[in-house]
């Protein structure tokens, strides 16, 4: 095996962990009371929708315990 004589073209990537930037990110803005209230209301609305769908959907998912009743019209009786 022979070794390559030319330098690696991406040598700066190997040195990236030694580099320290002097640029600091801007401080994060704290959410206002209105934003917190809005996010809370949206979250509660989503949870209430899921709970409501579960409550209304449970009767449809439960097995029928009563025997099947056939419907007949009054016209068929006469």
TrEMBL record:
Keyword annotations: Membrane, Transmembrane, Transmembrane helix
Organism superkingdom: Bacteria
Chain ranges passing through the membrane: 36-58
UniProt KW Transmembrane keyword: yes
Annotated protein name in UniProt: Uncharacterized protein
Organism: Streptomyces indicus
